[in-house]
Amino acid sequence: MKLIGITGGVGAGKTAILAYLEQNCSCRIELADEAAHKVKEPGGSCYGRLIELLGTGILNTDGTIHKGRMAEAIFSDSEKLAAVNALIHPAVKEYLLREIEKERRKARVDYFFIEAALLIEEGYEKIVDELWYIYTREDIREKRLREGRGYSAQKVRSIMAGQLSDTQFREHCAFVIDNNRSLEDTYRQIDRKLREGK
Predict the structure, then answer these.
(1) How far is CA 57 from CA 14, 16, 49, 143, in A?
(2) How crowded is residue 151: how many other Cβ atoms within 10 Å of its Cβ?
(3) 3-state secondary structure 173-195
(4) 159 CB contacts (<8 Å, ≥6 apart)?
(5) Global confidence as pTM
(6) 3-state secondary structure of 122
(7) C-alpha to C-alpha distance for 39 and 46, rounded to whole angstroms
(8) Can you say whether residue 55 is alpha, beta or left, with left for phi > 0 and alpha for psi between -120 and 50 degrees?
(9) Where is 127: in which H helix or E strand?
(10) Other CB atoms closer than 10 Å to residue 187's CB: what's the count?
(11) What is the tens place of the pLDDT at every residue in 103-124?
């Protein structure tokens, strides 16, 4: 089983590419965002510690963590934000490592893909066999985010400013998927890469 990390800036088109991979190769896909949600659920490895850190005010009536209230609790407090990140990022990595191990034992898929915006920053290149970078020009990404998610130009610029540059992504990634033209063109690049891996 080959372990691949997939990364790229916001609006690069990761969702469409992951959907294509899921349909066209023997693989399992894990999204770091979904893993982060799981570790925050009741019984999850971060649940109790998050309540200790942020208080019961972040909870819904059913005991689950309210995403909006949690965001409010850390939004203007850089210390709390750093503490929450220091809890969640290692827990997500541990969760993913356990899932990778389970999949290796089952020996049923050829690829295990991990998707996350912070793969490079969080040191995933030490875990995966290869990092793939989805490259899409900023103007295309901005248009997608404004039309698809309703983001303002200011919000898009603010998110992009906090992410790695194209040069930094390329320095760390073994394979670059150029997602600036049609999806068919993008899929052809992926097909070639998958054929090479066989």
Answers:
(1) 34, 37, 14, 37
(2) 18
(3) CCEEEECCCCHHHHHHHHHHHHH
(4) 10, 145, 151
(5) 0.91
(6) coil
(7) 5
(8) left
(9) none
(10) 16
(11) 999 999 999 999 988 899 999 9
